[in-house]
Write a structure and sequence with these properties.
By secondary structure, the chain is mainly α. Helices cover 68% and strands 3% of the residues. It has helices at residues 14-41, 46-49, 63-77, 97-125, 133-152, 161-168, 171-181, 185-215, and strands at 4-6, 81-83. Strands 1-2 form a two-stranded antiparallel ribbon. Helix 1 (14-41) packs across helix 5. The longest helix has 31 residues, at 185-215. The radius of gyration is 17 Å and the shape is globular.
């Protein structure tokens, strides 16, 4: 399943940008690995067979969508938009059918939510200088993972949230989602960009509320 993230780079210092990039790589790797581990736990060995049960970021980076795409979107739209290489799994081989596939789908975003909560708890409970480098790292790491969670839980293909919706959707809606998936990966990405543009105020509001709740 893909990790999709769009984050504004406005007003970031060079140090902040480095922290953002490292946070994205770490969070992306854990997110994708958890898709594979969950599928493996549910009986599908596809990710293991293809060497994707790993935290190695090189296994989860795609040359075009993880490197070139954010460069292009920074140049033209002033924010990096990136997609990790999807971890393959066979929904027909996991336990519990559509519900098992839904568990595989949401494992990534829920992992990011957990990372955001852990980072936020450290920031709130530890004796950390609010203006120091460590606090800045924790805040950015929390923001990155909260964004991962919120954006990837949008229930449209190819986002992870679509797996959850598919498991509980009536058959006509399942057919519609399947038809969207058949258009191809990049076509789905274009659909997402349109939806993201239209819903960006709502998405930003949810993301900001979540961050405020976690960080306090």
């Amino acid at each position: 399943m893909p990790v999709i993230l769009a984050i504004m780079f406005d007003s970031l210092s060079s140090t902040d940008i480095v922290i953002v990039i490292v946070s994205i790589i770490v969070s992306l790797s854990i997110h994708e690995a958890m898709h594979g581990f969950t599928a493996h736990w549910l009986g599908d060995s596809t990710a293991e067979d293809m060497g994707r049960l790993t935290l190695n970021p090189l296994k989860h980076i795609d040359l075009y969508t993880t490197i070139f795409l954010p460069i292009i979107t920074i140049v033209f739209f002033h924010f990096p938009f990136l997609i990790a290489k999807p971890v393959p799994f066979n929904p027909n081989r996991v336990k519990f059918g559509e519900y098992g596939a839904a568990l595989v789908g949401i494992a990534g975003p829920l992992t990011n939510l957990s990372l955001a909560v852990i980072s936020g708890l450290i920031l709130r409970s530890a004796n950390i200088d609010a203006n120091g480098l460590l606090a800045n790292i924790l805040v950015i790491f929390t923001e990155i993972n909260a964004a991962f969670f919120v954006i990837n839980m949008i229930p449209i293909p190819p986002l992870d949230g679509s797996r959850l919706l598919y498991a509980f959707a009536p058959e006509p809606l399942q057919d519609l989602m399947a038809s969207i998936e058949r258009t191809g990966f990049m076509a789905m990405v274009l659909v997402f960009l349109v939806v993201f543009y239209l819903l960006s105020p709502v998405i930003s509001s949810i993301d900001n509320s979540l961050i405020q709740f976690i960080v306090g």
